[in-house]
Amino acid sequence: MTLDRVKRGCLCRIISMPSEQVRDQCIRLGICEGETVNCCEIVPAGPVVIRKKRQEIAIGRALAKKIAVEEI
Fold first, then answer.
1. How much of the chain, in percent, has pLDDT values that exceed 90?
2. Which CATH number fits domain 3-71: 1.10.1420.10, 3.40.190.80, 2.30.30.90, 3.40.630.30?
3. Contact at 8 Å (CB) between 34 and 72?
């Protein structure tokens, strides 16, 4: 499953990022493979908002479609 398909309130773990460019973008946002995040909000036709610890991060749909996750 990819991050753009996660339901609101779902706890998930980031399992893979397909390319070095995607990894670089995610590292800039403060997330990496193996991290556990909570999906706070899904804005229709907008970003996916996740919470990592006490920080909320808005990830654009195009990037979210490239991040593989698993539900916990």
1. 85
2. 2.30.30.90
3. no
